[in-house]
Amino acid sequence: MQRNIIEPGKLPLLLALTAFVLTFLITRLVTRLIRAGKGPFGNVKAGGLHIHHVVPGVVLIVVGGFGAVASGRHGFGAAICAVLFGMGAGLVLDEFALILHLDDVYWTEEGRKSVEVVVLTAALVGLLLSGFSPFGVNDMSQEELHSRGDVISTVVVNFLFSLAVLSKGKARMAIFSVIVPLIGLIGLIRLARPGSPWARRFYRRRPRARAKSALRAYRHDRRWAGPRRKLQDLLGGKPDPVPPRAP
């Protein structure tokens, strides 16, 4: 903790990530209680206008961001600004789908994008936080320098692999392959998804590969659609049913 978090100046990042995750979880809990009509909570309105929580989120991001720039990386002020920034980011990304569609799609199928973006953001920040950075750490032995250099080299190579996996249209595998090389290796071996840059470049004159890629993507989506939907419902709540269209 002291050598890997505090000395390299990663404590504000840890505080921001913690505030980000807790704010998202608490916000989802409150909105689900409001939706169910339970608890003392309710929608915030001003003059008949529904104030979404993305609005205070933007305010917190602005205050925390500019405060962090003014206070530097160390000190109590930097910690407070990091917490404010993490809280604001959690509120804003919880309504990412609303910003993307410019519509209130919070409890719709489109609203699931918010949960996906929050999970991916937390994973990326977690990867950045868990990296063994030697910069800012003082009085390290030669063995520590060598071990940290090996770790950094491994992460760089895995990152290059993850870029190749990302070009195959597999964003989730690309993110986690940075620290788990086996995931990147699996992503490199398997066929690219249809429409990905890799497929457009290397499958253009290979109709058989294109057909196998489409079939594998269909089977993969059909197999994992159910578990992925259950996980999203657990984190963000089940979306409203789509009303039937009038004949």
TrEMBL record:
**Superkingdom of origin organism:** Bacteria
Spell out the residue ranges making up region: Disordered: 228-247
Any stretches that span the bilayer, and where are they? 12-30, 50-69, 76-97, 117-137, 149-167, 173-192
Which residues, if any, are the signal sequence?
Answer: none
Look up keyword Transmembrane helix and say if it applies: yes
Keywords noted in UniProt: Membrane, Transmembrane, Transmembrane helix
Q: What protein name does the entry list?
A: Integral membrane protein
Which organism's genome codes for this protein?
Streptomyces longisporus
